[in-house]
Specification:
The structure holds 2 protein chains of 2 kinds. Chain A is α/β, with parallel strands linked by helices. Chain A has a domain of about 170 residues: Rossmann fold. Chain A is about 40% helix and about 30% strand. The relative contact order of chain A is 0.18. Chain B is an alpha/beta fold. Chain B has one domain. Chain B has 7 helices and 20 strands. In chain B, strands 1, 2, 5, 7, 9, 11, 13, 15, 16, 18 and 20 form an 11-stranded mixed beta sheet that branches. In chain B, helix 1 packs antiparallel against helix 2 and helix 5 crosses helix 6. Chain B is globular, with a radius of gyration of 21 Å. Chain B starts with 10 loop residues before the first helix and ends with a helix. Classes of the chains: A alpha/beta, B alpha/beta. At the A-B interface, helix 2, strand 7 and helix 3 of A face helix 5 and helix 6 of B. The structure holds adenosine-5'-triphosphate (ATP) and magnesium ion (MG). The site of magnesium ion (MG) has 5 residues of chain A, from helix 1.
């Protein structure tokens, strides 16, 4: 069996004495797209932050392997360089940091870590322009400070733009669909689908089956109370849509 | 009836008294003997207790050659130099600039030891008359060179009605325990537009005092950027006076302090007539065991109706031992004014930091980006491209020395 892109083994995480993740087990093989669905507060964003390396979380047990390498001890920037990317549920506004400066710094940091030379300005401009066009991102928007004054939907599109530029191998999309109108959902989904490939895996966190009509997952996981309680094919999302989490919990309890 | 308790004088005070006496400033010597250096009980020196902080004063500096290049080079700038208080010969002045010399102090008399010392001890002052739209940046390169010495410099600058100029004062020198006391008197004529940048890059053992007195006539527009990046102990005092309707100043300043440094920017502003405005904005970044002080006093005279003045102080602490102290003071005698003040202080925003890191940007670079973002408001308005870059380099250089 080939090494999975992402393997989470018995992950337990606390925030200030409260256990939020209570034994997450999850495997995303190379080239696959997996969805995570689960009710509010069940710990989906917490999982995504822990994978990306945010402080304030205490991992008490378990392992996370990215392409076979344990990443839990790595700095967030090293994880990104290793190919992990989190599209934030709530992208952060950073006044005073120009979007283009940021994009270039991120791209060059990753190139440098891989021993590549800095991207030339014309190449960079072209890459941003092309990626922006595909996502219907207004060029003027990119002249502003990072995410500052972007609408909810614009922020989400900007996250996918970053993903398209950085070409990570493991993409985690935390509710990228929320805040998107119907047309934007299509554009963003197309953008995400364009990035699908044998060497790239995705973990798509969402509340809505609708997104999964556009980004068709290989596997759907149901998340409840800090762990994966059920995994199945894309029909699992439909089933969930039908009976809700409550029905699902009852079935489990029975 | 008050009982006179003689002040106990320390070695720094004794040395200053000796120097004042030798310079013939007997009255000043007696005054200092009576008062001693200001302690924290003196409001204007509350966070910069000179009696505590100024432990020694070196001998008066003699003439010295400034062999090295200026601490800050700005492409295209016209350079003038004052070395150990002595105005140096300079090349042909650009159009609209008359360079000269005068003797004696340039600052108004006030109840303040730093300005009094400057007035009493200064030998000669550089004079500048700027007229029309002065093109190159005018740089006054002030040096304290040679062995440890106490030197006093002064410049008196007039900018004519409707004229515009960018003036850069830089302070640097040999790495000795100097005491440099520098004065700038800058008068803006009607509708004159001036940018005044000062960059303190004094050596790590030095003490740096600077006092800038600004006079703004009708419609005059001033922008300052006062950077304290050098010296073990520095205090830069700003005395803007709004004397004509429509006068406006963006008085901005920046303390950059590292381990062992104490930097102070103290402004004492007077809105003297109706319809003037100011936007003082001071920022401090402190790391290691260091202390940055910002004091802002806004006085609005009884007649100065419609004054619009907002004072802001923002601090960024990059270590747990760093201290940033801000003290605003509003003294308003007019009743129809809009005046206010605010102060914030904190560390780099963790969420901002995480966002940048999560994209692969290494920690040091992310920190630099966020610090630059914090300072953008101060640096961005500097329109001269070469000057803007030079100031960015000062900040980046400071960060790199982290
Ligand atoms: N910094 C924190 N301090 C304390 N509790 C936290 C913190 N972050 C998250 N939590 C708690 O952890 C639980 C899981 O939150 P999380 O954001 O991971 O949920 P989620 O599954 O992403 O929910 P949603 O679907 O609403 O986005 C919640 O009860 C939340 O209140
Ligand atoms: Mg969430």
């Amino acid at each position: 069996m080939t090494t999975p892109m992402l393997e989470i083994r018995n992950l337990h995480v606390r925030i200030e004495e409260r256990e939020i993740l209570r034994g997450v087990n999850l495997i995303v093989p190379k080239g696959e797209v997996h969805a995570i669905m689960g009710r509010n507060g069940s710990g989906k964003s917490t999982l995504s932050y822990v994978l990306a390396g945010k402080e304030d979380y205490e991992v008490t047990e378990g392992e996370v392997l990215l392409d076979g390498v344990n990443i839990l001890e790595m700095e967030p920037s090293d994880r990104a360089v290793a190919g992990l990317f989190l599209a934030f549920q709530y992208p952060i506004e950073i006044p005073g940091v120009a979007t283009m400066t940021f994009l270039k710094a991120a791209l060059n940091a990753q190139r440098k870590a891989r021993g590549e030379s800095e991207i030339s300005t014309p190449d960079f401009m072209k890459a941003v322009r092309d990626a922006g066009k595909a996502l219907h991102i207004d060029a003027d928007m990119l002249k502003r400070a990072l995410n500052v004054g972007f609408s909810g939907g614009e922020k989400k599109r900007a996250e996918i733009l970053q993903m398209a530029l950085l070409k990570p191998k493991m993409c985690i999309l935390d509710e990228t669909d929320s805040g998107l109108d119907i047309d934007a959902l299509k554009v963003v989904s197309d953008g995400v689908n364009a990035l699908r490939g044998p060497d790239r895996s995705m973990l798509v966190i969402t509340h809505y089956q609708r997104l999964l009509n556009h980004i068709v997952p290989d596997v759907v996981h149901v998340f409840s109370d800090g762990r994966v309680v059920e995994s199945g094919g894309k029909d699992l999302a439909l089933e969930l849509e039908g009976k809700g989490y409550a029905g699902f919990d009852e079935e489990k309890a029975a | 009836m008050s009982v006179h308790v003689p002040v106990r004088l320390g070695p720094a005070e004794s040395k200053l008294i000796e120097q004042l006496t030798a310079a013939g400033a007997v009255a000043e010597a007696e005054r200092l003997t009576g008062s001693g250096l200001p302690t924290r009980r003196v409001e204007a020196y509350h966070y910069t207790d000179l009696k505590q902080l100024l432990r020694a004063v070196p001998e008066l500096a003699g003439a010295a050659e400034a062999a090295s290049a200026p601490a800050l080079r700005v492409a295209g700038a016209h350079q003038l130099m004052i070395a150990n208080g002595i105005v140096q010969e300079s090349g042909t002045a650009p159009a609209g600039v008359i360079v000269g010399k005068t003797t004696g102090g340039v600052l108004s008399t006030r109840d303040d030891i730093v300005t009094r010392l400057n007035n009493a001890l200064v030998g000669e002052a550089l004079t500048l008359e700027l007229d029309g739209s002065v093109d190159p940046v005018i740089q006054i390169d002030r040096r304290t060179e040679g062995g440890a010495g106490h030197s006093t410099s002064a410049a008196k600058i007039y900018v004519g009605d409707g004229s515009s100029a960018v003036i850069l004062d830089t302070y640097s020198g040999s790495d000795e325990a100097h005491l440099g006391n520098h004065a700038t008197y800058l008068a803006l004529g009607k509708n004159a537009k001036v940018t005044h940048i000062t960059v303190n890059l004094a050596g790590s053992k030095a003490t740096h005092f600077a006092s800038n007195e600004y006079h703004l006539a009708e419609g005059a527009q001033l922008r300052t950027l006062i950077i304290n990046a050098g010296a073990a102990l520095s205090r830069t005092q700003l005395f803007p006076k709004y004397e004509g309707a429509g006068a406006h100043a963006d008085v901005t300043g920046l303390n950059l302090v590292s381990d062992g440094q104490h930097a102070d920017i103290t402004m004492d502003a007077l809105h003297a007539v109706p319809h003037t405005s100011s936007k003082p904005l001071f920022k401090s970044i402190a790391r290691g065991r260091s202390r940055a002080v910002v004091q802002g006093r806004l006085v609005v005279a009884r007649d100065a109706q419609k004054t619009d003045a907002k004072l802001m102080s923002q601090g960024l602490m990059l270590s747990d031992e760093a201290e940033i102290l801000a003290k605003p003071e509003l003294e308003i005698y007019a009743d129809d004014v809009v005046c206010g003040h605010g102060a914030t202080s904190g560390q780099l925003d963790e969420d901002h930091m995480f966002y940048l890191l999560s994209r692969g940007i290494p920690k040091a670079e992310a920190e630099t980006m966020l610090v630059r973002a914090f300072l953008a408001e101060l640096i961005d308005p500097i329109e001269d491209q070469a000057l803007n870059e030079a100031l960015t380099d000062v900040v980046d250089g400071w960060l790199a020395r982290g």
